[in-house]
Amino acid sequence: MRMSTRWWRAAVAAFGLAAVLVAACGGATMPAAPTTTTASTPLTGTISVFAASSLTEVFKTIAADFQRANPGVTVEFNFAASSALATQIDQAAPADVFASADATNMTRLADKSQIDGTPVTFAKNLPVIVIPADNKAAIATPKDLSKAGVKLVLAGPDVPIGNYARQIIDRLAATPEYGAAYRDATLKNLVSNEQNVRAVLTKIELGEADAGIVYQTDALVAREKVKTVAIPEAANVIAVYPIAVVKTAKNKVAAAAFIKFVTGAPGQAALKAAGFDAAS
User: What is the total count of domains within the chain?
Assistant: First the structure.
């Protein structure tokens, strides 16, 4: 009877130990509980986009598509010369996104720690000579800009397209075909310095000047009212367009989403349709 009792107690103890070991091993190999995932929070609020004048039509198109995809967001614009926009942002104007027609003005803000993150290049553009449809001054080549009596209009030298235009004139003057005198003769014909590229285009549309230099995309916007004269590739300047979230943006989440939309397939398709070149 005593042996049976000892045997029974030992069996119970052994059985208990085995159960503990099985439970422990079983716990180690049990799959983890699935993690519950939730849908992304819908974007809401308003974003203020400060964008170069040459982006007016295409950014309005992109914004309309963006708002359809994100009905809780409203996109507002301030279109002007990139230099003017950079100054406004530097003076604490309420902007969420800055899209510049050159790297210079973006760098100007980044150097002052007024840009959040790293700017992204989203498009490129090419300057062209634009003339009124009737072309009374008979402008056929860039060399004709230096002819006596031609009324030339450019954007101011601090405006990206105005800076590009002067670089082009300098490059042409550096070639044997044009010569150093070309620069002085051409700039002597300058009748006004406009605040932005669209002001230059308007002057040509209205016939208030014989020629100007704008982006190829601007010429497409006014295609029925103006003609273009190509600039030799070796003398031309590629305009690079960077975009970034402004450091003081009040709606950084929606601002970043807008930039992602611009640099993504929908935005790039719209930019290509408007005549801009690919960012890469």
Answer: 2
Indicate whether 113 belongs to any domain: yes
99-135 pLDDT, tens digit per residue, is 999 999 999 999 999 999 999 999 999 999 999 999 9
185/223 same-domain check: yes
Determine the Cα–Cα distance for residues 59 and 243; give it in Å rounded to an integer.
12
For residue 223, the one-letter residue type is R
Q: Is residue 27 in some structural domain?
A: no
Q: Note whether 204 and 258 are same-domain residues.
A: no
What's the CATH number where 174 sits?
3.40.190.10
- Kindly indicate the confidence band of residue 279, based on its pLDDT and cuts at 50, 70 and 90: confident
Q: What is the DSSP string of 163-184?
A: HHHHHHHHHHHTSTTT-THHHH
264 φψ region: left (φ > 0), alpha (ψ -120 to 50), beta (else): beta
Q: Which domain holds residue 249?
A: 45-124+240-273
Q: Which residues contact 94 (CB under 8 A, 6 or more apart)?
A: 48, 248, 250
101, 54 Cβ separation under 8 angstroms: yes
Q: How far apart are CA 194 and CA 55, in angstroms?
A: 17
Buried b (16+ CB within 10 A) or exposed e, 99-132: bbbbbbbbebbbeeebbbeebeebbebbbbbbbb
Entry pTM: 0.84
- H/E stretch holding 110 reads helix 103-110
Pairing of strands 239-246, 97-99: antiparallel
Do 145 and 152 meet the contact criterion of CB atoms below 8 Å apart? yes
Same domain, 114 and 139: no
Q: Say if 70 falls within a structural domain.
A: yes
Do 99 and 75 have their domain in common? yes
* Strand (E) or helix (H) holding 190: strand 190-194
